[in-house]
Amino acid sequence: MSNVERDPAELRCGGVVTAAEPEYELLRPRTVPLGGPRAMLVGRTLPNRDRRMVGAWCFADFYGPADITGAPGMQVPPHPHTGLQTVSWLLGGEVLHRDSLGNEQLVRPGELNLMTAGFGISHSEESPVGHGPVLHGVQLWVALPGDRRDVAPHFEHHGELPVLSTADGAVTVLMGELAGAKSAARTYTPLVGAELSIAAGRTLRLPVQAEFEHAVLAVSDGLAVGDRPLAGGDMLYLGRGRREVSVRADRPARAVLLGGIPFEEQLVMWWNFVGRSHDEIAQARAEWEHGRSTGESDGRFGVVHGYDGPALPAPELPNVELRARGRTRWST
Known about the structure:
The protein has 332 residues and is mainly beta. It has one helix spanning 278-294; strands at residues 11-14, 22-27, 30-34, 40-46, 57-67, 75-81, 84-92, 95-99, 104-107, 112-116, 121-126, 134-143, 154-158, 163-166, 169-178, 181-182, 191-198, 203-207, 213-218, 223-225, 228-230, 235-239, 244-249, 253-260, 266-270, 273-275. Strands 2, 14, 15, 16, 17, 19, 22 and 24 form an eight-stranded antiparallel beta sheet that branches. Strands 3-4-5-12-7-10-13 form a seven-stranded antiparallel beta sheet, with no helix packed on it. The two termini are 29 Å apart. Residues 195-292 form the Pirin C-terminal domain. GO terms for molecular function: metal ion binding.
């Protein structure tokens, strides 16, 4: 998914974390239009004002459930990415992915689309013709570490993922490993991502790695982590040092658990690029604009075929130099 803001702020993230104790920090989403001012709205919890990452997870959008009956639904034109992985996970509806490597894949609930941008890729995402009435899901980004940020781009679709079921609910492991269940999705840093489905009136208790920092993103109402209630779209950061995360539901509810080793590199994150310097971002932008204007298929980002419409132009760079930043507002 693209960051489609026409005047995107520099998204500051990366850097060393010093605190190692469990904590609670509520991250509220901000509302962003997906595809223009009259488009579907999404809630963005990462990057947040103070805390910009959870492990290598550097971007989190939550949308829906949206009624898209008679509407276009999701329509994100071809756009570029560098230095990250995009993680598409649906709770309802369907989204069609096309990319410059020639992949075309419809993703449905319970299936994972994972695109590793590496040195550079472009893709589009859209609700297909004849789509259903509801669209509900999350879009996540994972920052690639410095020594792997220029890997060759590639795409994975995982139609079957490990699921752990108990009387309290079910856990689907999207990436990484949790409670002995391991996803086949490729990762480049130690991390975990999982969907939690909690039965009404039950508490789902999950063993987690104490060296990871964790957060829970509520994708429905009626949830509490420990004794802290969450509204749909809220994220609760939990810090490090925990060996268990408990999520309670007073009605059938769902959440996404994110975690990972704190990401200690400083990043420049602007528009749809993750890099390490202003010049790196400016070069990626220039190469995207050149390829977009000329239609050259052999450039850095290639061409997405099959989308009915033009590629997304890059915003203008700000008038100040983009700086590599720490992963929180307090880190250098």
